[in-house]
Design goal:
Layout: H1 6-15, E1 20-23, E2 37-40, E3 47-51, E4 56-60, H2 65-74, E5 77-78, H3 87-90, H4 98-103, H5 111-114, E6 121-127, E7 133-137, E8 162-169, E9 171-172, E10 176-183, H6 187-198, E11 204-210, E12 219-226, H7 228-242, E13 248-251, H8 254-265, E14 277-282, H9 285-296, E15 302-306, E16 311-316, H10 322-326, E17 332-337, H11 340-346, E18 352-353, H12 354-367, E19 383-384
Parallel strand pairs: 1-2, 18-19
Antiparallel strand pairs: 3-4, 4-8, 5-9, 6-7, 6-8, 10-12, 10-13, 11-12, 14-16, 14-17, 15-16
Helix pairs in contact: 6-9
Length: about 375
């Protein structure tokens, strides 16, 4: 089923009696395996409203992300949460859609400064699990006076309702970019350097460490963005402060800086062709190096530290329960890439607190009482009290 408008979609959902498997462009097969009648949202396309002066964009959920980026660039604007392209990591093809990236809450390295996808969705239209048209939020930045229902859909993987239209807040593209590079740091040294940079007053918009970078050697990356005069000053001052960690190399070439951060954003080091399972671990930055070291004592792994170490991408060999290995350290681990059999065996998502699990289920039941939409895709294998 590929509805071309909201009315077709609502009629289909209202008459449905069996589970429905919702998909956008097919580039992000995240979550638990689920079955059901296939529903594509790629027919719900188009730029519905764009006000560059108001920094707002309204777009159909099935609109290709590339089309949105093209329109925004023409006006010197962009989606600041830096959504990742999952195709290399997950070995998928197809075209990424805005509804898919919202449903996955896809947010990249710039979230350390700007926030994530959830912070830039200011309104939605959707069809509930009973086939009803509903709206949440609005089309201007200050529009919410009660519960901001639209935030429930960001990261909801289609379980709350089917997005048909999204209103984003957008921002101007930075005029200039500088990346401060420190080569050869250990993981612990890199974490301390990134925390030092993020705690500075210089507006760091990216902090990543690759024990094995694009050239195969350790590199720590600190990004600054803004106007050229501001970048000159902030680069000079932050270089001075980071000198105690090692020699700092400043990269200003826009092609090289963009390629470097795309490498981090899309976790290109772990491209699907190289095999292995991939986990995404969220933790406290100060715990990241110890967590990785603990895993390394048992298994050979590759890792990418993003967001100052608060986000870890870890590649292991197949069929390792990383979640059981890291134990009680603060944070949570999500199984991003593996076989369907391993997803069922280990569970994709981290165990939830029992109260939170009941609350999440109550929200889904409110909007999808027949439990039709992407049934089981977000289930936790185990829950804790």
């Amino acid at each position: 089923m590929r509805p071309e408008n909201e009315h077709e979609l609502a009629a289909f959902i209202a008459s449905a009696n069996n589970p429905i498997r919702i998909q956008g462009g097919g580039t992000r097969p995240l979550g638990n395996p689920c079955t059901g009648e296939f529903l594509s949202t790629t027919g719900l396309t188009g730029i519905r409203e764009y006000e560059p002066g108001a920094l707002t964009l309204v777009v159909g959920a099935g609109t290709p992300l590339d089309e949105v980026n093209t329109v925004l660039r023409e006006h010197g604007q962009f989606l600041p949460f830096e959504p990742m392209d999952c195709r290399k990591l997950l070995g998928t093809k197809g075209v990424s859609t805005v509804g898919g990236l919202v449903s996955a809450n896809s947010s990249g390295p710039r979230r350390v400064l700007c926030g994530g996808c959830r912070d830039y969705v200011i309104g939605i239209r959707f069809v509930s699990g009973e086939g009803e048209f509903l709206t949440a939020g609005g089309r201007v930045m200050k529009n919410v006076t009660g519960y901001d229902i639209s935030k429930l859909f960001v990261g909801g993987l289609g379980t709350v309702g089917i997005l048909t239209e999204i209103c984003f807040k957008v921002l101007p593209i930075p005029h200039d970019t500088a990346v401060l590079l420190i080569n050869g740091l250990s993981d612990d040294q890199a974490i301390r350097a990134m925390i030092h940079a993020l705690n500075s007053p210089f507006g760091v918009s990216g902090a990543a460490h690759l024990p094995r970078g694009m050239d195969g050697h350790p590199v720590t990356m600190i990004r600054l963005e803004g106007f050229e005069v501001s970048i000159d000053y902030r680069t000079r001052e932050l270089t001075r402060r980071l000198a105690k960690f090692g020699d700092v190399v400043v990269e200003r070439d826009p092609v090289r800086t963009q390629a470097g951060w795309q490498f981090v954003r899309d976790v290109e080091l772990f491209e699907a062709a190289k095999g292995g399972d991939v986990w995404r671990v969220s933790t406290r930055s100060r715990d990241a190096a110890a967590l990785v070291d603990m895993v390394r004592r048992s298994y050979e792994i590759d890792v990418v530290y993003d967001c100052g170490g608060a986000v870890l991408w870890i590649r292991t060999r197949e069929s390792i329960d990383l979640r059981a290995l890291i134990g009680p350290l603060p944070g949570h681990a999500t199984l991003i890439r593996t076989s369907d059999a391993n997803k069922r065996r280990y569970g994709v998502f981290h165990p939830q607190d029992a109260i939170l699990a009941r609350l999440s289920e109550a929200v889904r039941q409110e909007f999808d009482p027949r439990n039709l939409l992407n049934r089981g895709i977000m289930d936790c294998r185990h829950q804790v009290n």
